[in-house]
Write a structure and sequence with these properties.
Layout: H1 2-10, H2 14-35, H3 40-54, H4 60-70, H5 78-92, H6 98-108, H7 119-135, H8 145-157, H9 168-180, H10 187-194, H11 205-218, H12 227-238, H13 242-251, H14 261-273, H15 279-285, H16 289-300, H17 310-323, H18 327-338, E1 340-342, E2 345-346, H19 360-375, E3 383-385, H20 395-415, H21 423-438, E4 439-441, H22 461-479, H23 484-489, H24 508-520, E5 526-528, H25 534-541, H26 546-554, H27 559-576, H28 587-600, H29 605-618, H30 624-634, H31 664-701, H32 706-718, H33 732-787, H34 798-809, H35 815-833, H36 846-862, H37 866-884, H38 895-900, H39 907-923, H40 931-940, H41 942-958, H42 962-977, H43 979-984, H44 988-1005, H45 1012-1024
Parallel strand pairs: 1-3
Antiparallel strand pairs: 1-2, 4-5
């Protein structure tokens, strides 16, 4: 096959031959360029393509010449590429003798004939040439091995010794020779060359250290680990001299240099050595000076414009844990890096994603180690350091910092769904965090494993607050946990996976509720950090007092508040939500909705997310009364009512001072929340100030306050200042009295004016808080529409959302108001009206829905804004879609029956409603309706289109203006072009329609002016008319 292809190429036409040869030579020469490139993938690809090319082209002689020349290339990465290519070519073409290639290498790279400055390259060429012969795999088949060994001995006789490793390249040459020719360079041979049988020994350490420093400086800009360094480490392990090499060459050699390339090389060598070391060696290197210097580098590199090696170390650790299957070695690495702290703060991030590669056994041991360090930290086993510029912290603060990051690390293990964890481990971590956040052990109990260990240092309020927040976030994460089986085996793409439950179907939160009950029932063994009052204890024990208890604890933003709300919400969701639904309207759902609405009034993003999550869990149980409570909050008509239930609190004044903040992460979250609120309020206040200034100016130029005028006249009369005579002047005493009176009067007036401004600012601030609260409440509406789109209760959202949109379109243009309007409009149109899931079981509500349709269309015709009209018309189409429902299974067999299916729609009544709207559109000069609205109606409901076609045809001539007549033509044209309409009007009805249209067009054609729609209709009539018989 290949021979025929070559023959065809040889017999190609003459005019193309020259170009083809040049092109082939260009491709052939590019192979050698690619062999010299630093990218290993490019070099390997070039080797393969070169061999395939040589099998079809006779270019062996030139190939050997180029490959032998490249063995002494000045570029370090090129020499292995040419050596590999030479070995592969010799392996593929066995008819070429190894002796001939060896002669080429000897002649080209003869150390006795080359110039002195090229002597080093010549030795490299000889070594890589011999390496190519070895890689060909043919040395065992021929008798050339003796000649090659004699050739290597000849190199030594020329004055070049393999033991003269004064540079990294020379050392690399020696190490490659040891790897490729272990049988040749045995210890006896090495002793003759070096004077000792090993490379790494006490005498060679100074020389090796200098070579390592040179290698570090050579890759300063590349930020990589030189291959010679890793090869030297491997050799130390092979020669059983690792400890000597690490302690003397690295710690006492490289780390004695100033921070820079030498230190970075040591850190990279540490990361690269992890897969090569045993458990004992890992513990040794991860608790020594290299780790200490690495920690100092990480801390000092936090400043901007500093080189950061931490991302590289994370890759080293991640690759090691992913490729290692030994739990003991994995645990040694995790403990080593976790023990590195800077005055109690961890050097590695608290949320360290490398834990996802731990084996289950290693993960369990690592969690046990974290818990042990939390309870009884063994400071002598920790690698704690302090930098020069940092202030010395006391042991108490170090301990608190350590407790915080340990809890954060435990929580991150649960948050990361990629971690190979079991259900017992998840529950164990959750119980541990929960216990130490809200309780303390008094006496060990067999029923409560957490009481077995006591804290060596009691928790202060700040640290306990961090634990409370961590548990709060952990509770939310557990609510979103997929099943462990789904995580391990992978669930189907379209399969709906349950979240927040264990393998037996029990919710994770319910397990914690049961655990909390156990703790509360063990007062002899467990002590609560915030003991319950008798009323609270009674509320916990009794279901009927539970919600009153939540209301009592709601107003206190403390650790107790977080605990009470968390547990009570859990109980409501897990216990009462799982109860049998014998009552038609379970009251617990309505109370839960009230609680969530109260929580949403708090300026906290975390609480907002929790409310959204909890509401998504109780969506299936929401009743009409609960949904009405949400809609009442959003109803703009109830904003001005004095008995409105919307009460929004502003807690900005009660926020903590900077010196009372807990930890850095918590501070950032609080600051971000506060900054957003403050920025909004500042903008509002600026707007208010501008409005107030304008109002004051209007007051100045407008009518003066009559009461102020009277008071002013009274003051002037008392001092006879209103006397019109110019002869009599006021004396100094009278003038002073007049000034005092005027000053007092204007001061009082200024106070009144400032009071009015303060009242106005207060009202504006309250208005802003209410707007923000309503935006949060829209979260609940959005969740309900997304989760319960097929519920009949969704129909109750249509009118309230339309009212919000209608009122928002006509209100002020404040940015916050526009955001609220945009959010409500998106939920209504994109998530409600356009959802593929909708209520398909109308039941006995047909009459109610038909009344709603008439009400919506009546309102539509009375509107003045087309934008608002569009939403009302979309709502009408949504109601028709709900009334129609889905066609039965047997109706889908015949397409025509499927088109005629209208479900529970009263076609005559609905057609009359839309016919009236169409007539209004065609008879009014300024109508909010548009042709596109009726086009959507025709496209979505062909049956209604057929019913309205006659009216549309009549309006071609009866339209109030030419514009309306043109729009009527467009509607008729779109309808007649519809395939569904053509199927419904087949036969005589289609012919009758075409005749009517033709008649109307003929009447229109006699008019002097013809619009675009009319013209299009006239041209289309000729096309549609022949189809009257179809």
């Amino acid at each position: 096959m290949s021979g025929e292809m070559v023959e065809v190429s040889v017999k190609a036409p003459e005019p193309v031959r020259t170009t083809g040869v040049l092109q082939q030579n260009r491709v052939f020469l590019d192979f050698f360029w690619d062999l010299a490139k630093p990218d290993q993938e490019v070099r390997l690809k070039a080797v393969g393509e070169l061999i395939r090319y040589l099998k079809t082209h006779n270019q062996l002689d030139y190939t050997f010449k180029r490959l032998v020349d490249g063995l002494a290339h000045t570029r370090e990465a090129a020499r292995p590429g040419f050596s590999l290519a030479l070995g592969q070519v010799l392996s593929s073409f066995e008819d070429v003798s190894l002796q001939s290639v060896l002669n080429r290498v000897r002649e080209k790279h003869n150390p006795q004939t080359v110039k002195k400055k090229l002597l080093r390259n010549a030795f490299f060429g000889n070594l890589f040439g011999v390496l190519a012969l070895y890689q060909s795999g043919r040395l065992s088949k021929v008798s050339s091995l003796a000649k090659i060994l004699s050739f290597l001995k000849g190199l030594k006789q020329t004055g070049y010794s393999l033991g003269s490793f004064r540079t990294p390249e020379q050392l690399q040459l020696l190490l490659v020779a040891l790897q490729r020719f272990p049988q040749t360079l045995k210890p006896k041979k090495l002793k003759k060359l070096l004077g000792c049988s090993t490379i790494i020994n006490a005498d060679n350490i100074p020389k090796l250290t200098e070579v390592l420093k040179m290698a570090a400086r050579s890759v300063k800009k590349e930020c990589v680990l030189p291959a010679v360094v890793l090869d030297l480490l491997k050799l130390s392990l092979k020669e059983d001299s690792f400890q000597l090499f690490w302690n003397n060459a690295i710690i006492n050699g490289m780390l004695k240099e100033q921070p820079g390339p030498a230190h970075y090389l040591s850190f990279r060598l540490l990361g690269s050595a992890l897969p090569l070391l045993s458990v004992a060696q890992l513990k040794e290197v991860l608790s020594g000076d290299v780790m200490m210097h690495y920690g100092e580098h990480v801390v000092s590199a936090q400043k901007p414009d500093r080189f950061k090696l931490a991302p590289e170390m994370d890759v080293y650790v991640s690759d090691f844990l992913e490729g290692c299957q030994d739990p003991d070695r994995q645990l040694a690495v995790m403990v080593g890096f976790s023990s590195l702290t800077n005055q109690g703060y961890p050097v590695v991030p608290s949320v360290w994603r490398v834990v996802q590669h731990l084996q289950p056994a290693a993960l369990q041991q690592y969690v046990d180690w974290l818990k042990k360090m939390f309870l009884q930290p063994q400071t002598d086993q920790l690698l704690d350091f302090s930098t020069r510029n940092s202030e010395q912290e006391d042991e108490g603060r170090k301990s608190n910092c350590r407790l915080k990051w340990i809890i954060a690390r435990l929580s991150s293990i649960i948050d990361n769904h990629q971690v190979k964890r079991q259900e017992d481990l998840i529950l164990d971590v959750a119980r541990f965090v929960f216990f130490h956040a809200f309780f303390s052990a008094k006496k060990a109990s067999a029923d409560i494993p957490e009481t077995a260990g006591k804290l060596s240092v009691p928790l202060d309020d700040k640290t306990r607050g961090v634990l409370v927040n961590s548990f709060f976030g952990l509770l939310l994460s557990m609510h979103h946990l997929p099943l462990i089986e789904d995580t391990a085996e992978g669930a189907a793409v379209n399969q709906k996976r349950p979240l927040g439950v264990t393998s037996d179907g029990t919710m994770w939160i319910y397990h914690l509720v049961q655990y909390a009950q156990v703790l509360l029932n063990q007062p002899k063994h467990v002590q609560s950090s915030q003991p319950f009052s008798p009323e609270q204890k009674q509320a916990w024990d009794g279901r009927e007092y539970l919600y009153r208890f939540i209301g009592l604890t709601y107003c206190h933003l403390t650790a107790e508040y977080c605990f009470n709300v968390c547990v009570c919400v859990c109980v409501c969701v897990c216990v009462f939500g799982a109860a049998t639904e014998e009552e038609e309207e379970p009251e617990w759902v309505e109370v839960m909705v009230d609680i969530l609405l109260s929580l949403l009034s708090q300026p906290s993003r975390h609480i907002r997310q929790v409310c959204r999550t909890v509401f998504s869990s109780i969506c299936p149980h929401v009743t009409a009364a609960a949904l009405t409570a949400i809609l009442d909050v959003l109803d703009p008509e109830k904003d001005d009512e004095e008995d409105s239930a919307v009460v929004v609190t502003d807690d900005n004044k009660t926020q903590k001072k900077p010196d009372e903040e807990d930890d850095e992460d918590h501070d950032e979250e609080m600051e971000s929340d506060g900054s957003d609120d403050d920025s909004d309020e500042d903008e509002d206040n600026e707007d208010d100030d501008d409005e107030d200034d304008e109002a004051m100016e209007e007051e100045e130029v407008g009518e003066v306050d009559q009461s102020f005028r009277l008071e002013l006249m009274k003051v002037l009369q008392q001092q006879n200042a209103l006397d019109g005579s110019d002869d009599e002047d006021l004396d100094d005493e009278a003038m002073m009295e007049l000034d005092k009176g005027l000053a007092a009067l204007f001061s009082e007036q200024k106070k009144k004016s400032q009071a009015k401004k303060d009242e106005k600012a207060k009202l504006q601030k309250e208005k802003t808080l209410v707007r923000d609260f309503k935006i949060k409440v829209l979260d609940l509406v959005e969740v309900f529409v997304a989760r319960q789109a097929g519920s009949p209760l969704v129909l109750g959202l249509v009118e309230p959302l339309l009212t919000i949109i209608d009122r928002g379109m006509s209100s002020d243009s404040h940015q916050q108001e526009q955001d609220f309007l945009r959010r409500a409009a998106d939920i209504f149109r994109n998530q409600l009206c356009r959802s593929k899931v909708y209520c398909r079981t109308v039941g006995d509500r047909q009459g109610e829905l038909h009344d709603l349709l008439e009400k919506l269309m009546t309102k539509t015709q009375k509107l003045s804004d087309s934008a608002v009209c569009l939403y009302y018309f979309s709502a009408s189409l949504y109601v028709v879609k709900v009334l129609r429902g889905a066609p039965p299974a047997d109706a889908k067999e015949e397409q025509t029956n499927d088109l005629r299916f209208m479900g529970n729609v009263d076609v005559d009544r609905v057609s009359a409603v839309f016919r009236e709207a169409l007539s209004s559109f065609m008879s009014k000069r300024k109508s909010p309706l548009t042709a596109q609205m009726f086009t959507d109606l025709f496209n979505r409901f062909p049956v209604l289109c057929v019913s309205l076609l006659d009216a549309a045809v009549q309006h071609i001539t009866s339209g109030v203006r030419v514009h309306q007549q043109g729009q009527a033509c467009v509607l008729v044209l779109r309808a007649m072009q519809s395939r569904e309409v053509q199927q419904l009007l087949s036969g005589d009805r289609w012919a009758e329609l075409c005749a009517k249209v033709t008649g109307q067009l003929a009447a229109v054609g006699q008019q002097q002016s013809t619009s675009t729609g009319l013209t299009a209709m006239i041209h289309s009539a000729a096309v549609l008319s022949p189809r009257r018989d179809n």
